[in-house]
Amino acid sequence: MTENTRPLALFDLDGTLADTAHRQRFLERSPRDWTAFFAAAPDDPPLPEGVALALEYARECEVAYLTGRPERCRADTVAWLAAQGLPDGRIWMRRNDDRRPARRTKPEILRRLAREREIRVFVDDDELVCDEAERAGVRVVRARWAVESAALKDAQEREGRT
After folding, report:
1. H or E stretch including 130?
2. pLDDT digits (tens, 9 = 90+) for 43-58
3. What is the spatial distance between Cα 18 and Cα 51, in angstroms, rounded to a whole number?
4. Torsion 22-75-77-72 (CA) sign
5. Which of 5, 88, 89, 99 is the most buried (most CB within 10 A)?
6. Strands, E, within the chain: which ranges?
7. pLDDT per residue over 60-104, tens digit each?
């Protein structure tokens, strides 16, 4: 079976594979400091539950990543994934100027991918994104292993930044 015919297992990053707790402080101030928030991402500790799940799915699936992080974070994201021993995989990121909520952008990408490939699972911590993905017919695992951040949830919904 070739790589491009294997089912996809798609993983979110922040709050699913990466623990963002140490950088939440940048979102709790006014105005929010998005530059510092994303600059601190390379220091995110991994979330063991998410990493283990990605490695488990890698046995049968092509693991790929669907994140609300902006494109300007790609190099740091690729390096972080490699440092955690996570599978190489395609990464879908938000355009730097895209401020739509993740509950709009991620399901849009999922629907497009599902027309071309089987999506075995989508793993994300954002309940609104998970709800929309399920409505689109995608099997979802809700990543509930990270400490929730009210500031991050608000930013995701109102500012479309991650």
Report:
1. helix 127-135
2. 999 999 999 999 999 9
3. 9
4. positive
5. 89
6. 8-11, 62-70, 91-94, 119-124, 140-142
7. 999 999 998 999 999 999 999 999 999 999 999 988 887 777 788
Contact 72, 130 (CB under 8 A): no
CA distances from 73 to 5, 12, 34, 83, 113 (A): 28, 14, 12, 15, 22
Instruction: State the amino acid at position 155 in one-letter form.
Output: A
| Cα distance between residue 29 and residue 31, in whole Å | 6
The encoded tokens of residue 76 equal: 């740091």
CB 146 within 8 A of CB 21: yes
Instruction: Work out the burial of residue 11: count CB atoms within 10 Å of its CB; fewer than 13 is exposed, 13-18 middle, 19 or more buried.
Output: buried
DSSP 46: B
The total of other beta-carbon atoms located within 10 Å of residue 53's CB is: 21
